[in-house]
Structure formats: structure tokens, C-alpha cells
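Q: Could you fold this chain for me?
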Amino acid sequence: MTTKYDDAVIALYRAPLDKFVAERKRLASELKSGGDKAGATRLAALGRPPISAWTVNQLWWEARDAFDELIAAGERLRAGNLAGTSAHREAMAELRARAETLLGAAGHAATEATLRRIMTDLSAIGAAGSFDPDPPGALAGDREPPGFDVIGMAALEAAEAPAERHPRPKPDRKEAADAHRKNEADASRERQARERLAHERRKAEEERARKRVECERLEAALRSAKAELKTRTHQVDRMRKELADAEKTVAQAEAAIDDLASRLASLDAGAAK
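A: Sure. Below is the predicted structure, expressed as C-alpha cells.
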């Protein structure tokens, strides 16, 4: 049985990415008002996922058929069943296509870098067989690519088992050294690529944070300007009314003066006679 906290986590990670912060605040407030203060605190601490992890979460909910095929294919490969290779490849291709469609529908660019990161996350989940330690459909961050031994070693052993009767000759030292250097170079390139990706992700996050701060500052300035305009408008309306009242008073005074002058002139004319 799921708890209200579990339901809140699912709702949070299914929400549009640009609504994540507002939805987290709303759901945490609901948990707190419902008496689950600990759950509210835990939920408020959950981080906004990168767009790649967010997309994987949406695929879990909206492309479950292909996701289930990926998990099942991973299980077969870990058991050494080579029949899972084709199913794994087909599931990954289907999920990539669905990811492009999903990103476009949500207004996000389906860049090659984003799609590669999504495929790495999917490979890691397929190799592990689950989202652990995150709940299903609530991937909080990107995963490291799975090691070959996780999903491929069993399949490789199964493929090479019949050949053990006729073992291949051992490579000479030069071939072994060349292979070792090549493996090290490949590992170095992969490590550098991961570091570049992490650096780019940090820069993108910093830029988004800067833009959020600037946006909040401008919104605050706009609210202040609107409040000032409203106050000044009320002051102008009040002064216009006071001016209209003063002009009316002046007109009445002028009329009274004219009346008194007329009456005085009449009296002076009568006295002269």
C-alpha cells in the first residue's frame, strides 16, 4: 500500500519539468497540512532532476510496454541468454524514439547530448533491473553507464562456452600490450567525456539558477512598480477630486461676491437719489 508521501513523490516526478519547484512546494504543503511533517520535509529536500532523468521518468509512465521489455531483456542477458540481445536493442531503439517524441511534446529540444544521456540512464536501469535506490518512475539524477560485467559478461560466457574445447591461442606480449594501451585510451576518453558532460551540466544548472534569480528580481521589481503606480494613481484621483471641489467653492464664492456687489450698487444708487 502506498502512503500519501509515496503518492506525492510520484506526482512530483510526473509533473512538467518547469513546474517541478512549484509542484514540490504545493505537495509538501499538502503533506504538512495533512499531518505528515516528516514527509513534507523529505519531499521538500528532493532535487529537481536533469532533463534526461526527467524524460526517463516520463518514459516509465508513458512507455511502460517498451520499458518492461528493456527490463526483461536485461534479465535474460544477465542469465546468459543471448536471445535477450536483440530484444534489448529493440527496446532501447523504441525508448529513444519515444523519448524524442516526449521531449518535443513537452517543448524541450531533443539534442543528441540529451538523448545520449537518456540512453545511458536507460542502459543502467536495464542492467540493474530496477530504479533502485530511487522509486520506480522517480529517477532523481543521471546514472553512470553500466559496467560490461553487469549485463554482458554472462552473455559473453554463454557465447564462448562451446569454443572452450578448442581454446584460442594466447596473444603475444606485444598484442597484449597494444590491447592494454587501447583499453586504457578508451577508458580515458570515456572518463573525459563524462567529465565534460558533468561540467556542461553544472554550467547549465548554474545558468538556470542565475536566470531564476534574475527572473525573481525582475518580478519583484515589477510588483513594486505596479504597487507604486496604483498608489500614485489613487493620489492623482484624490487631488483631482479636491481640485474639482476647490473650483466649485471658488465659483460659489465668486457668485456670492457678484451678488453682494450688485446689491451694494443698488443701495448706492438709491442713496444718491
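A (continued): Residues 152-171 have pLDDT under 50 and may be disordered.
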